[in-house]
Specification:
121 residues, four-stranded antiparallel beta sheet, mainly beta
Length: 121
C-alpha cells in the first residue's frame, strides 16, 4: 500500500552531478523523516543523509559540502542533490521514510527498491 518510488540514478563522470528523487505514496498519516542510504557491493548499508519533519538535516562526513538533501512536504518527496561526485560514491542508493499510517501508529521505516549511481570515467 505504501510505496517509495525512486528516480534519478545513472552513470556520471567524476565531478559530475545527479539529483535523486523519491516519492512516498499510499495511505500515510505523516512522515517523520526521510533519508537516503547507500550500499556498495560487499559493504554495509550506510546513511548518506536524512531530513526530519522539521527540516533538520544530517549528512555523513564524506558527503558534507557535496550533497544536499531536501523535501517537498506537500508531495511527500525527498531529493538528494549530489555534486562533485567521486568514484567512491558509486553504490545502490535507497530511499527511506519513517512514517505513520495513522495517528495511533508507531513510526515505521519504509524503503524504496534502490537506484544505482555509478561514478566512473
Amino acid at each position: 500500500q505504501v510505496q517509495l518510488v525512486e528516480s534519478g540514478g545513472g552513470l556520471v563522470q567524476p565531478g559530475g552531478s545527479l539529483r535523486l528523487s523519491c516519492a512516498a505514496s499510499g495511505s500515510i498519516f505523516s512522515i517523520d523523516s526521510m533519508g537516503w542510504y547507500r550500499q556498495a557491493p560487499g559493504k554495509q548499508r550506510e546513511l548518506v543523509a536524512d531530513i526530519t519533519s522539521g527540516g533538520s538535516t544530517n549528512y555523513r562526513d564524506s558527503v558534507k559540502g557535496r550533497f544536499t538533501i531536501s523535501r517537498d512536504y506537500a508531495k511527500n518527496t525527498v531529493y538528494l542533490h549530489m555534486n562533485s561526485l567521486k568514484p567512491e560514491d558509486t553504490a545502490a542508493y535507497y530511499c527511506m521514510a519513517e512514517l505513520r499510517l495513522t495517528i495511533w501508529d508507531t513510526p515505521s521505516d519504509y524503503w524504496g527498491r534502490g537506484t544505482q549511481v555509478t561514478v566512473s570515467s
